[in-house]
Amino acid sequence: MSRDIERIFRDEFGRVVASLTRRFGDLDVAEEAAGEALLAALERWPVDGVPPNPGGWLTTTAVRRAIDRIRREQQRDAKHQAALMIHDDTPHEPTGAVDDDRLRLLFTCCHPALAPEARVALTLRLLGGLTVAEIAAAFLVPETTMAQRVTRAKAKIKGAHIPYRVPSAADLAERLAAVLTVVYLVFNEGYLASAGDAPIRAELTDEAIRLGRVLRTLLPDEAEIAGLLALMLLIDSRRPSRVADGELVPLPEQDRGGWDRALIAEGHALVRECLDRARRTGRPPGRYQLLAAVNAVHTDAPTWADTDWSQIAALYDQLAAVDPGPVVALNRAVAVAELDGPAVGLAAVDRLGLTAYHAWHATRADLLRRLGRSGEARAAYDAAIAATDNPAERAFLARRRGQLAG
């Protein structure tokens, strides 16, 4: 029962925090009251049963706890008056173009006054409901470091009086890159969970896609929003085939008949729209548009053998020009291995030296396996298993390691 309650709470966490932030204008009050609501649910629900509307129950309980806390504090008069504003449900300030609590909170967390890494960390905590440990794992930093980032970011918002609203049209462009990064990282945490018993956290992928759709409604002419939405839809279309019997199923082995064709069609239409816009305007496609195009090629192929690897390699070349980095180079090396053989791909992978990245070890292990270098492959599989906490991925890597000769 407690596990079910925690799952419901995680699903509703972003909604509860965003709602309380709008009402009270204080992130600490909102987050702590949400946590107290969880404790109340853990006490009450095993006895009374889960309410018909658990999100509404958690929000109502959190609001009451927040008011109780405000009343207990020293500056009672001013804060008590702020708490009473809940009765007419009036926001503290203009809410912007889109009436969505979570979107307002998203732009608040991504304010340019905050450091980029703090924006992402805070949003993953408050919107995605990720623990500090999970966020730290996603960023490959110590948990204490990530806890300090979150704490400092909330203090900065409070001290600088950063507004809780969707910014004006003039400010949207400069704020958009950080927002898109946050949405994509929330999606990635759901697509392949960094911690916990569930290999896939559909509530996070669904939430990221929902935020992507809202952003597209807000800025329909922004190509990178369309690209990110297409990317998430195309990746999520493969969700039904990605895990079987508790084990991650790699792309070459997935049952493509189980892919969600409606999501694929929607994603392909968005990719075509982005490419047509790039041709008309002469503006090269950005990072998310190119990643979406890569996934469009994958989802267009009826089988793994039919994949157009030349096109994928060319797309990664374009991506390296606009967003260079070792992870892009690693993915390009995978395409090169399919085109020119595993030895050529392995040479490219070894030049990157991403020793803290589990996908680098997993890629090396697979290429070494294909080359028949079982001893080295076994060591690479061990390193990949040690670098990930996802149970389905660990199960897949362990099976592949067990199949090595000798």
Automatic annotation (TrEMBL):
Domain RNA polymerase sigma-70 region: 14-74
Highest taxon listed in the record's lineage: Bacteria
Coiled coil (UniProt feature): none
Domain DUF6596: 175-273
All residue ranges annotated as the RNA polymerase sigma factor 70 region 4 type domain in the record: 106-157
Keywords (A to Z) from UniProt: Sigma factor, Transcription, Transcription regulation
Stored Pfam families: DUF6596 (PF20239), Sigma70_r2 (PF04542), Sigma70_r4_2 (PF08281)
Family statement: Belongs to the sigma-70 factor family. ECF subfamily.
PANTHER family attached to this UniProt entry: BLL6612 PROTEIN, BLL6612 PROTEIN-RELATED
Name of the protein in its database record: Sigma-70 family RNA polymerase sigma factor
Species the sequence originates in: Pseudonocardia charpentierae
